[in-house]
Amino acid sequence: MVIFPLLALLLFGNSAYRRGDLAPLKAWLLFSAIYVVLFLVITRLRTSRVIRQLLREGENKAVVCEHVLEITPDALVESTDISEFRSKWVGIERVEETADHTFIYVQATAAHMIPRAAILEGNYEAFRDEIRRILVARES
Question: For the whole model, what pTM was predicted?
Answer without folding.
Answer: 0.57
